[in-house]
Amino acid sequence: xxxxxxxxxxxxxxxxxxxxxxTFSVEPGQTLAVCGPSGCGKSTLMSILAGWQVPTxxxxxxxxxxxxxxxxxxxxxxxxxxxxxxxxxxxxxxxxRRRQAEICAYDALRLFDLEATAMRPFSALSGGEAQRLMxxxxxxxxxDLLLVDEPTAQLDTRTAHSISRVLGNLxxxxxAVVVATHDTDTREACQRAIDLADYAPSETxxxxxxxxxxxDDTRKETxxxxxxxxxNETGRQR
Length: 238
Ligand SMILES: Nc1ncnc2c1ncn2[C@@H]1O[C@H](COP(=O)(O)OP(=O)(O)OP(=O)(O)O)[C@@H](O)[C@H]1O
Hints:
Number of strands: 9
Number of domains: 2
Bound molecules: adenosine-5'-triphosphate
Shape: globular
């Protein structure tokens, strides 16, 4: 299984080119952070990877990718359903029995420090808990490619840090993970990082975009190889 992105470029009708000549690949067990200023096209790139958006130029080749998971910036759920229900659902949809599904679901809830919320309705979860629930559900759906869009945007620094470390562990579970992020911890939890600002056409003026100070040290290189031990330090392997 692999994801190959070849000479990709995109612009929406009537707007500037967001990025161009973007080439990279992601394999199972790898995590790739997609960074860059707000508005540079991170979410758009994720949509292209998911096949929801057709790129203006270039191509995405998904070889052997049967299931794509997506964790959005904003958590969503059914207000009256419990946290456990949300995590169990993808397993029941695959035909697992409720009892077995609950064992897996509790593992995933534990991974994101959500065990205590298992029987709480979605409407009673905090923003951070709800976002972690989305990650737990994504783990249970066992995708080949997991797209995670700004997973820590709603979380406090401490929680965000633990989420980032667990994201690193996801790669160890055998799926390819692509994470759009502004967060330093999240970026460092990934094995590689791409700065989309490096793929903006030179005439594009990004001065009006929000400069993420966390990226200042990465802009010098297109692809930054990050310390792989950051991925393995958590001790929370399942
Ligand atoms: N369907 C669309 N039609 C026209 N323009 C769009 C469309 N979707 C997104 N855009 C524009 O494309 C640009 C990139 O948007 P995108 O959401 O991909 O950026 P981003 O890097 O993910 O931003 P953020 O970090 O703020 O989430 C923005 O200027 C946005 O307004």
